[in-house]
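anyone seen this seq b4? input:
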Amino acid sequence: MRRLPALLALLAAGVLAAGCGNARTPPPDADTPGSPFGFSQRKIDDAGLALRVPNGWRVTEGSPPQVIASSTGTAVLSVWRYPRSEPLPASEAELQAALDNLTDAAKARDPGLRVRDSEVTEIDDRPAVEIVAKGTIAGRERVVHSVHVYAFDSEYVIDAYARPRDFGRVDEEVFEEVLESIELSEPVA
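predicted toks r here
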């Protein structure tokens, strides 16, 4: 008869493990980008780059030409540095030509690409061009915010993208904040 209390205890444990009620806990939403919990300063001397990265996002330093990447859910922010031997665009006309060439190259890679906005601008007082477009990445629809900055014999590319439904929020909460924080300097060899 000693087996009966042990059997009842095991049966009770099984009932408790099965849970109560009929409602199931939904799985976490791993696709929706999380909002940052503030920002932290990062400095990458060998790329001549300082910027603020979002807390709560996964951040990894890359191997050249990638400098750093940050992501959460389906939102991604990457910074690349491409050393250039040719003269970098500096005048308004050269920057407009660079912007036109980048737009044409992006449309050649993705014929369905739709440019929402593009402009000649500056990042950290350096000449830059900026494109916001809706297209596909790896077969998935995304809105891309791409900035190319020309400084220190390099082209710095800041690419940020998210699903169309998330892009506006993530662009405002994170991408714009990161762009405003960028500081460029001579890369340390």
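The longest strand covers residues 126-137. Helices lie at 3-18, 92-109, 164-181. kinda curious what u guys think
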